[in-house]
Amino acid sequence: MNARNKKIRSGALAAFFVAMLLGTLSMPAFGQNPRLDIKNLEALAKKASEVVDVNLDGSLLKLASKFMTDEDDREALGIIKNLKGVYVKSLTFDEPGDYSEGDVEAIRSQLQAPAWSRIVSARSKHDGENAEIYLMTATDGGSVLGMAIICAEPKELTVVNIVGPVDIDKLSQLEGKMGIPRLEEQTDESGQKPEGHRAKP
Amino acid sequence: MRNHRLLLAPAILSVALLQMLPDAARAGDSEFHSLVERMSDYYQKRPVRHMGWLNFFANRYTPGGVSHFEMAIFDDVDASRTHAIEELGSSLVSLVGPSYQPFVSVQDLRSGEWTSIYTRESGKEQIEMLIISIDSSDAVLMKMQLKPEAMRKWLEDPMERARDARRGAEDAQRDRM
Prior knowledge:
The structure holds 2 protein chains of 2 kinds.
Chain A: H1 2-25, H2 42-45, E1 50-57, H3 58-67, H4 74-80, E2 85-92, H5 101-108, E3 116-124, E4 129-137, E5 144-153, E6 156-163, H6 183-190
Antiparallel strand pairs in A: 1-2, 2-6, 3-4, 4-5, 5-6
Chain B: H1 2-27, H2 30-43, H3 51-61, E1 66-74, H4 79-82, H5 85-96, E2 101-108, E3 113-121, E4 127-134, E5 139-146, H6 148-156, H7 158-176
Antiparallel strand pairs in B: 1-5, 2-3, 3-4, 4-5
Helix pairs in contact in B: 1-3, 6-7
């Protein structure tokens, strides 16, 4: 009886550890969240001439997907229906230099490895534009949990946070929609290749 | 004399009907009424009168996909209260209640204008939109229902649509004067 109890106990323990392991693999690194804390930009908002916030949480996205009935929307719909939220904060300034690199760093500091990895960084010396795309992946590297886009122009700073699985190859379907800037224009002008690549999930 | 009476009767009837129309238009949405009341409490001010007329006609001439349009304008509001953005923000959240979700907000710090847009599902394929636009002297409350074609435009470019809404609120204030 004791031997049987021991077997059951060890079996239960093994199952518990397997469950823990599987759970850990599908979770982001400890302490990191696909939802960015954009409140860091609140202080910066006081220096801006215009501040725009777009909040599309899960329920609104679900609702939005009902309205995307056009043939052109089919691919975007495929992405949107799986998302948990799209959050955009855009700040416009009167003069170049009204915000500093340090201000952007407050956002970048949340986008740290191992959970987050920068997959695109494009800079344009001409226009002073800078676009960065970060992906958060599960620790098994298999699934994308979120995305962050930072578009910094001399007089405009836009931070986009997409929470949920999004295919980077299909990101273009969302560009120009829901407050997400058109990244192609920015990256094409830069003439620089993306840096900080990581194996595509 | 009889001719005068004949002419007078339809005129009186028309006036009576026209007097009733704004009230009928207002009575349509008790929730909007209570929102107006709460905004009145906040600003300690009544909204501009005869808005029922504007709402009545606006509902007949609103562009495609927009219906059940209602608007209330509060003019000469206490600017010192308007500038307390944080206080105003939490007040607005409590004003709209939990069923509305924040969708877009545009804040113009130079002019002190602030437009907040909230949405919620309304029926099968409609969205109800609540727009609160405030500047240093006026506050405008708008509520409307959007059909899919109208909501698509909002999703295409929520930032620009929100700026349009703010400009619309400004125009409404100007046209009223």
